[in-house]
Amino acid sequence: MSRNQLLPRDPSPPPDGPADDSGCPILHVDMDAFYASVELLDRPELRGTPVIVGATGARGVVLSATYEARRFGVHSAMPMTRARRICPQATVIPPRHAKYAEVSRGVMEIFQSITPEVEPIASDEAFLDVGGARRRLGSPAAIARMIRAQVAERFGITCSVGVASTKFVAKLASRQCKPDGLLVVPADRVVEFLHPLPVAALWGVGERTEQALVRLGIRTVGDLAQVPVATLQREFGAVGAHLAALAWGRDDRRVVPHAPDKSIGNEETFPHDVDDPETIRRELLRLSERVAARLRAGGHVGRTVSVKLRRSDFTTITRSRTLREATDVAKEIFDTSCELYEAAGLERVRLRLVGVRVENLIPAAAATRQLGLGERETGWREAEQAMDRAARRFGPDAVKPASLVRRPFGPIGL
């Protein structure tokens, strides 16, 4: 693929000239079909075809889908069985969370190079307040174009950017211009932009609220804007005033830079309930490896290990332990997880789901390793780092330490 093919396209300016972005310091940057786009970097032959990222099996769900798959109705959080039924020609790829975390960290670094006012709201999207970067980098629209070009050039994937006066409108704008687009909503044209949209576009309008609004004859944001606030409050309580404000583009929330992630975890739902302790331990091993890889990819270590155990009756039990030192080593996470599982007294109880999580994260560079007198380095961290490098070079299927333990079946990732 040539460099020009990687660079994102910008929409043509409107007939009356470029939109006025002078009152629009807020950007919402949203990666396009993030997990699927990352997978296509290693599977370029699948470009232009339906691709679904997610675990297979009766309880698997869709994590991401290319726009070719979305045309068939496939969307995130859809049960995989339904996705494969409505789009049988799609290629299904198991998720690689460590790889996505690595790319996400690089994308966030690009954002941080623009402004410290970055509020990540997921691994693939964030709000930026670029008001303080104008003198150095230009107008908000110019900064948005810069971000899109840098993401495409560095990672070979695309993103869509909404530019607006508020977070709410910026997020709607990025959704409207997907995929691979940029949309500026001038401050004096917010109402013009909002009112034709379906009422479900508003934050806080879920399926039930939408149904209630439609029963009242309210189908668009413009319809909602004409309803007295008192009426909305009577029908929906405090949410009514919130919806009324959004209908006129009022949103006073600021971009709030987030602290680093406080925890990283993975969980698995079995195709059928399991009461075999060895099977559970094998899953704890696989989950520990995935969590450790994500920690290393994100540059984190953590001190607290917790396990999540969900019984067949949906009763959920969690157990945790704080380690002497922070870790990103799968073996240490696995050993602790097994001890917590055994201490929970569920070794002969049928389980529907198991999960492993590491909490109390700190940057790996800030952690120190204290060896006791006569204690030697185990070498596990170095070995796992070598496996990370091999996986990046040869692909995730080349290195599967957990597969050394044979599993009777493969659980389904959520």
From TrEMBL:
Arranged from A to Z, the UniProt key words for this protein are: Cytoplasm, DNA damage, DNA repair, DNA replication, DNA-binding, DNA-directed DNA polymerase, Magnesium, Metal-binding, Mutator protein, Nucleotidyltransferase, Transferase
Cofactor section:
Mg(2+)
Q: For the site Substrate discrimination, which positions are given?
A: Y35
**Which InterPro entries would you find in this protein's record?**
DNA/RNA_pol_sf, DNA_pol_Y-fam_lit_finger_sf, DNA_pol_Y-fam_little_finger, DNA_polymerase-Y, DNApol_IV, IMS_HHH_1, Rev_trsase/Diguanyl_cyclase, UmuC
Cross-referenced SUPFAM superfamilies: DNA/RNA polymerases, Lesion bypass DNA polymerase (Y-family), little finger domain
Task: Outline the segment boundaries, as ranges, of region: Disordered.
Answer: 1-23
Note whether DNA damage occurs among the keywords: yes
Protein EC: 2.7.7.7
* Binding positions (Mg(2+)): D30, D124
Q: Does the keyword field hold Flavoprotein?
A: no
* GO MF terms, alphabetically ordered: DNA-directed DNA polymerase activity
Domain UmuC, chain residue ranges per copy: 26-206
Where's the active site on this chain? E125
Q: Can you say where in the cell this protein is located?
A: Cytoplasm
The note describing how and how many cofactors are bound reads:
Binds 2 magnesium ions per subunit.
Q: Could you tell me what reaction this enzyme catalyses? A: DNA(n) + a 2'-deoxyribonucleoside 5'-triphosphate = DNA(n+1) + diphosphate
* Residues spanning the signal sequence: none
Q: Indicate where this protein is primarily found.
A: cytoplasm
Q: Which family does it belong to?
A: Belongs to the DNA polymerase type-Y family.
Outline what the protein does: Poorly processive, error-prone DNA polymerase involved in untargeted mutagenesis. Copies undamaged DNA at stalled replication forks, which arise in vivo from mismatched or misaligned primer ends. These misaligned primers can be extended by PolIV. Exhibits no 3'-5' exonuclease (proofreading) activity. May be involved in translesional synthesis, in conjunction with the beta clamp from PolIII.
Assembly and partners are described as: Monomer.
Q: Known HAMAP family for this protein?
A: DNApol_IV
What name does the UniProt record give this protein?
DNA polymerase IV
The species is Microbispora hainanensis
Q: Which gene encodes it?
A: dinB
